[in-house]
Amino acid sequence: MYEPVSAHMQDMGFDRVSTRRGNTDDLFHIDGHDVVGRGTTTPTPIDEHHLRQLHETVYLKKGNAQWVHFSYGGYTRAARAFADSTGIALFEFKLGGRIAPRSETATQCYGRKPLDRWKRQIIWSSIAMAAASLVVIAVIKVPTVGWVLAVLVLVAIVGPVVRLVTRTG
Prior knowledge:
By secondary structure, the protein is of the alpha/beta class. The protein folds into 2 domains: 1-112, Trna Endonuclease, Chain: A, domain 1, CATH 3.40.1350; 115-167, no CATH class. It is 51% helix and 21% strand. It has 6 helices and 6 strands; from the N terminus they run H-E-E-E-H-E-H-E-E-H-H-H. Helix 2 (48-57) runs parallel beside helix 3 and helix 5 crosses helix 6. The longest helix is centred in the last third of the chain and has 26 residues, at 116-141. The mean pLDDT is 85.
């Protein structure tokens, strides 16, 4: 449901994180191995009273899990102080889809595990860039390579078109 939240939690090292819609339109649930949380989609800041209610009704029941909360509207100063005193990790959605930590516990969550997904993306992007560079260099240095690649691309495009035309004809 809230895929960026799941991906963000998994980047921090939490396993099998999922999200689902809550009982009200502005609430969603976060569940995973060693993590439990809630999130709100309202643009108003979350106050201490709201976090205190969640702490008593949700978080204390999951004593061993990391407690998290996500908000679009941010948090009041009192809410951040309460979260720091109880160990709730607060995160806020920022412009452009970025998620930022808003409590000391949230900042500490980033130390759990390296961002493996981002490392893999960088490695594969580097490999693709190197391969593309080698192809360009080969085409420039050896014109025959360019002609061979052009023929391969032409065959790859024309082949399916011919098959499609012969089926419909």
